[in-house]
Amino acid sequence: MPARTWVPPGPYDLHRTLCVLQRGPGDPAFAVRGGAVWRACRTPQGPGTLRVAARPADGSVEAEAWGPGADWLLAGLPDLLGESDDPTALTARHRLVHEARRRHPGVRLARTGLVLESLIPSVLEQKVTSDEAYRAWRLLLQRHGEPAPGPWERLRVMPDPRGWALIPSWEWHRAGVDAKRSSAILRAVRAARRMEEAAQMDLADATRRLTAIPGIGPWTAAETLQRTLGAPDAITVGDLHLPKIIGYALTGRRGTTDEEMLELLAPYEGQRHRAARLILLSGHTPPRRAPRFPVGNIARL
User: Fold this and answer.
1) Which CDD domains does the record match to this protein (predicted)?
2) pLDDT confidence of 299, banded at 50, 70, 90?
3) Cα 102 to the chain's mean position, in Å?
4) Is residue 97's pLDDT more than 60?
5) Percentage of residues in the chain with pLDDT exceeding 90?
6) Nearest-angstrom CA–CA distance, 266 and 272
7) Residue 163: which residues within 8 A CB-CB, separation 6 or more?
8) pLDDT tens for residues 67-83?
9) Which CATH fold would you assign to the domain 115-228?
10) Domain-by-domain residue ranges, the chain?
11) Among the listed residues 225, 235, 219, the one whose alpha carbon sits nearest the alpha carbon of residue 278
12) Which CATH number does the domain 3-86 belong to among 3.30.310.20, 3.10.50.30, 3.40.50.620, 3.40.50.11540?
């Protein structure tokens, strides 16, 4: 069981940095246990499990890993924890953003270096509620993933590209995934090598690579590359809630459109995703006026 210690270059918040990798409560590939973050994933060297915990005594972070992908995971630990990220690149142009950064100085943008790991659950989140997408991810990993290496038997590693391609149509249906989303995932896994190459590209080229696949648009690409590249400017456009939250937080107005959101975030060009993340952390969200969307379940059809 290889291990590694990393010393953050400044204030550091382990949980808020890595929580963006979790796909809802009960995610079979991610968990927090005893203060440590556990992550099971499929690396270029095979399945691996990573356990990461902060050591308050000396301010360091310790990690252990299991499985064929253990060495790959530990080699990428600094990038995963945000060592290559530069939070000081953002200049706060709004009091709310300044205050959010003051309250959360240890939040960095994680860089996983893996594309399909973030792309597939992002496709599952297209045009449905978060609860529906999380349920689909959970069921697909439980039924078609494999037990993660290491001591925690609950964790699951997602299927490899061939494993995704072999999932029968009725299993997608049972997980509540319609044909449009499952077809997009199947096209992506058939081009898995080309997809994973995007992890070594800049944001613009990586976006073009991902959106060349039918069914993967700017929203899905941004949600993926925020995690794969730790891209500070990968702002999500086309989201149902984000423009409204950004607009309300910065102006107090409701009903902000994507175009208006981009105008508001224009002073943060190059750091728009980071600015949006800080705004979300501020907790300034518009009061709810309508009931939540009902959770659908196409498996019952």
Assistant:
1) ENDO3c
2) low
3) 24
4) yes
5) 91
6) 8
7) 144, 145
8) 999 999 999 999 999 99
9) Endonuclease III; domain 1 (1.10.340)
10) 3-86, 115-228
11) 235
12) 3.30.310.20
